[in-house]
Amino acid sequence: MTNNNAVIFDVTADSFMTDVIEKSHQVPVLLDFWADWCEPCKNLTPILHAVVEKHPDALVLAQVDADKEQMLAQQMGIQSLPTVALLKSGQIIDNFMGVKSESELTTWLSQHIELNEVAKEPVLDDNVQDMIDAGQFEEALSALLVLPHETAVWKIIEVHLLMNDVPAAQKLYAGLSDQQLKMPEADIAKAKIQLAAVEANDELTEFKQQIAQGDVETAVVGLLELLQKDITDANVKQLLVASFGLLGDAKLAAQYRRRMGSILN
User: Fold this and answer.
1) Are residues 83 and 60 in the same domain?
2) Which CA distances in Å does 7 have to 61, 127, 184?
């Protein structure tokens, strides 16, 4: 997890005084202690990023890898991961452990700082969605390509997948900026590309259709049953991994990942 932009950055013991304590006299600092092995941390990170990126003038996010900075974590009294603290004027004014949803995190922050959300990007023209719903994919692509790329790229990926052009979708995903890759849309796009790339027999095709229609959890339960019967089936594994990203619930996804892990172990 490497971040070097103005509002989200990594912190070490050497940079802590400058990047956290001194910085907090200028702007509130959200301090996140995480570790690569920590599943709740992986669920919380994109939520923290999303909130900070929506309010770039209100606060910054400083991230500490607790495995690499064990002494710093001990000095800060970190007992479990993730732990998040909010600092102002060199002092911790509040903290929490575990995962919060975006709305919960925003409510928690609003108790201490004023959040001014940046203007939202323009919404895609309703006509484009009408074209997609009608199966007019070429027309939809033409309309999307004249829009700002950062606004339209997610829908362009979706249309390529609807046209069964997985390589085109993969190429677009590979060209995303570091900032775009931190967005929740990137995780969804990645999962959809993985889903489209799975080679499916008749049985798996039914599961893919089920997922595409939004009944993701039912499909996941069925796929886990298939995996129990044959833990070597790479297509079932790939379809499961893709489906986790489309559940729309980080805690639920983590629960099913653990179930998959227990089956494979």
Assistant:
1) yes
2) 6, 36, 17
> Which pLDDT tens digit goes with each residue over 92-143?
999 999 999 988 999 999 999 988 654 444 445 568 888 888 889 999 998 8
For residues 33 and 69, give the distance between their C-alpha atoms in angstroms, rounded to a whole number. Answer: 9
Q: At what angle do helices 216-229 and 202-212 cross, to 10 degrees?
A: 150
- Distance of alpha carbon 219 from alpha carbon 243, whole angstroms: 8
Non-local CB neighbours of 169 within 8 Å, separated by 6+ positions: 157, 160, 161, 189, 192, 193, 196
Residue among 20, 41, 161, 223 flagged as catalytic: 41
Cβ pair 52, 119 in contact under 8 A: no
| Per-residue pLDDT tens digits for 229-256 | 999 988 889 889 888 888 877 788 889 9
Q: Nearest to residue 96, comparing CAs of 80, 111, 112?
A: 80
Distances (CA, A) of 135 to 87, 132, 222: 51, 5, 29
Q: Which one is catalytic: 13, 27, 35, 38?
A: 38
Domain containing 31 equals: 8-110
Taken in order 47, 12, 118, 185, the sign of the CA dihedral is negative
Query: Does 142 share its domain with 96?
Result: no
Let me know if 38 is a catalytic residue: yes
Distance CA 1, CA 222 (A): 33
Sign of the CA dihedral with 169 first, then 133, 149, and 192 last: negative
Told to judge if 149 belongs to the known catalytic residues of this protein, a careful annotator would answer no
Residue 149 and residue 179 in one domain: yes
